[in-house]
Design brief:
Number of domains: 2
Order of helices and strands: HHHEEEHHHEHEEHHEHEEE
Helix content: 25-40%
CATH topology of the largest domain: Chorismate lyase
Radius of gyration: 22 Å
Mean pLDDT: 94
CATH architecture of the largest domain: 3-Layer(aba) Sandwich
Shape: elongated
Strand order of the largest sheet: 4-5-6-9-8-7
Number of strands: 10
Low-confidence stretches: none
Number of helices: 10
Distance between the termini: 47 Å
Length: 261
């Protein structure tokens, strides 16, 4: 084990054991170097590891601090059936809680929600995914939801609908109706669309500068990219969504029931 990994491991253990508490300043790099009898560059390597893990943050001109853990988002593959089961409930029931509350354990009053709607056209990627012509008019919805005690959203979500498919209900074209009680599945239900299946492709990569700033990411933290494709009971792709999630606060849990012999 390299020296910087050993230092990072010991500091990590002190943080997890509560010996270094959220918001507490770590000893100066020179003091840590003396404590571990290693060079300052080695200490900086160790601190960089902890920063990439989201355990500490470097504040310019002030030093390194233990980072307050952000609210964990646990996204399961069962969330979609949970949402479908609520599609035909009355509005009061649907308005009481949504998918974000389901994933975080928070309540509606804990959340700050924003939605933007834009006219868009299908590029080659979206046209191929939807099975439509390039240039077909789309409705792009951009969603950001955050915990009221935090500055950064849980994710960056871009959802696309074929405009002609949902234009029968003008309310679906108006962002002021968000947050929509019951989410996208209920929105589609209002124009006679029932989902048959949802596929999700998950990848990871370093964030762009814009993503790192928007999601409040520490240096070295990757993002998880999820492409969601919703297919209706007629076999049509009716929604495509791209969700960018911070790797330091997102847990994806997949449960697969197995048929018995």
């Amino acid at each position: 084990m390299a020296a910087y990994e050993r230092i990072a491991g010991e500091l990590r253990q002190r943080i997890r054991a509560g010996q270094l508490r959220p918001g507490e300043k770590l000893p100066a790099e020179t003091n840590l170097a003396d404590e571990y009898r290693k060079s300052v560059p080695t200490v900086r390597q160790a601190l960089a590891v902890l920063q990439a893990e989201g355990l500490i943050e470097k504040r310019h001109g002030r030093g390194n601090f233990v980072r307050k853990p952000r609210k964990l988002v646990q996204r399961t593959n069962q969330r979609h059936q949970w949402e479908k089961d609520r599609v035909r409930e009355d509005e009061t029931e649907r308005r009481a809680t949504g998918a974000t509350e389901h994933d975080t354990g928070l309540t509606v009053s804990d959340l700050v929600f924003s939605a933007e709607y834009h006219d868009a056209e299908a590029d080659e990627d979206l046209a191929e995914t939807f099975g439509i012509e390039v240039g077909t008019p789309l409705l792009e919805r951009v969603y950001r939801t955050r915990y009221s005690e935090e500055d950064a959203p849980f994710n960056l979500a871009h959802s696309y609908l074929v405009r002609d498919m949902v234009a029968g209900n003008p309310d679906l074209l108006d962002a002021s109706n968000e947050p929509w009680p019951g989410g996208s599945q209920n929105q589609l239900y209002t124009v006679g669309i029932e989902l048959d299946r949802i596929t999700e492709r998950i990848t990871a990569r370093p964030p762009t500068v814009e993503e790192a700033e928007a999601l409040g990411l520490s240096a070295g933290v990757s993002v998880i990219i999820l492409r969601k494709v919703c297919v209706d009971t007629d076999g049509r792709v009716v929604e495509v969504a791209d969700v960018t999630m911070p790797g330091d606060r997102t847990e994806i849990l997949v449960t697969t029931p197995l048929a018995r012999w």
